[in-house]
Amino acid sequence: MRIGFLARSLTHGAGVGRYARCLLRAMSNVGSDELILLSNKRLPGLDASLDTINSNRSNFLSILLWEQFHVPRIVRRKGIDVFFNPDFVLPLRCPCPGVVTVHDVSYATMPAAGLRARLYYGAFVARSVRKAHTVVTVSEFSKGAIRDHFGIDGKKIAVAYPAADDRFHPSYDPGDIRLVRRKYNIEGDYILYVGLLGGWKNVEGLLEAYDIVRRNADRHCDLVLAGRTCAATRRILRTAERLQLGECLHLLPNVDDGDLPLLYNGATVFAFPSLHEGFGLPPLEAMCCGVPVVCTNAGALPEVTADAALRVAPGNSDELASALLDVMHDDKLRQRLIDNGFRRARAFSWENCARSILNIFHDAAGCHERGTMEPSKEMDLPVPV
């Protein structure tokens, strides 16, 4: 079977980009089908054996036109049996069965989503969801949100849980961890957050909680924020200035991807104050690295973390501060969260995710041959236990 893989998200940073890269690697390892990558630009560092068709589109409008008009022609010319985009949108006139991953519906339900994101996804995701043979998503929470938001049959939506990249583990040389700390000018203990620096991640709430922590902790602990900036990052800076956090706060908007596992490994505790989450990869990465996790109970976070995190109500900075202080002061609680985190993280596997989605591709191709667009069976990957 020939699978067309829309690859432009491979060049993105965290989030969908990491999902696409890990999924592609796992599909290459576990499957024997032919993968054909379609990208708007060159993809450095890929396996040379992968069939890649590159275009030369760099601005938003040219990429949109390429995605909607040129990609279907390539699909037809290459005789592709199933087309897949790990990033929300399908060509509206795709000549073969399409499968799309819709990670969540935050672009439509969260007011902090950017205007361009709301316009683009608002125009294309609903049509893509209805056109797709199967919609893949990353949690039961997201499955329910997609079903309710778009009003489609839940049988058309398949859950395939992602996992952390295998680079996230605790077995790093302490000397390398010290070098990374020195690189980013971090001394002593620190609370770590990884994710978008704005939006519905509620980083301002974490700053408020940290202000309580630093006045009540039995030892000094800095706060490290690592992630991509956005327009809303200005509010984080204003909050930090109001709280006079000064040198206690380390804002790292351009962390080298190779340094991220080492930053996790050096952390005292990982904090994730998100108000909405379709899956929540950073807490899972932290668990893989042996770092105790404090997060909210928003969205899919309870589904992902289970008993491996201390969870608090979204938007409650006092409760978040109390949980962080508990982990910092209670060694038994800390060790329990670390042990449960390792166990929970092992329940998620990129190989299982890839096999589940490849099965969906084969089902889609088979249904196309039989002249039906309905999935032949429930395709969900079982909930990790």
End-to-end C-alpha gap? 33 Å
CATH third-level topology of the largest domain:
Rossmann fold
Known CATH architecture of the largest domain:
3-Layer(aba) Sandwich
CATH class of the largest domain: Alpha Beta
Give the helices and strands as they follow along the chain: EHEEHEEHHEHEHEHEHEHEHEHEHHH
The class by helix and strand makeup works out as: alpha/beta
Order of neighbouring strands in the sheet with most strands: 3-2-1-4-5-6-7
Write structural notes for this entry.
The protein has 385 residues and is of the alpha/beta class. The chain has two domains: 2-163 and 349-370, 3-Layer(aba) Sandwich (Rossmann fold); 174-345, 3-Layer(aba) Sandwich (Rossmann fold). Helices cover 44% and strands 15% of the residues. It has 14 helices and 13 strands. The strands form two sheets. The protein has a seven-stranded parallel sheet, with helices on both faces. Strands 10-9-8-11-12-13 form a six-stranded parallel sheet, sandwiched between helices. It is elongated and about 65 Å long. 45% of the residues are buried. The mean pLDDT is 91.
What is this structure's SSE topology?
Blueprint: E1 2-6, H1 16-30, E2 34-39, E3 51-54, H2 60-77, E4 82-85, E5 98-101, H3 106-109, H4 115-131, E6 134-137, H5 140-150, E7 157-159, H6 174-183, E8 190-194, H7 203-216, E9 222-226, H8 233-242, E10 249-252, H9 260-266, E11 269-272, H10 281-288, E12 293-296, H11 301-305, E13 309-312, H12 317-329, H13 331-345, H14 350-370
Parallel strand pairs: 1-2, 1-4, 2-3, 4-5, 5-6, 6-7, 8-9, 8-11, 9-10, 11-12, 12-13
Helix pairs in contact: 1-14, 6-9, 7-8, 7-12, 10-13
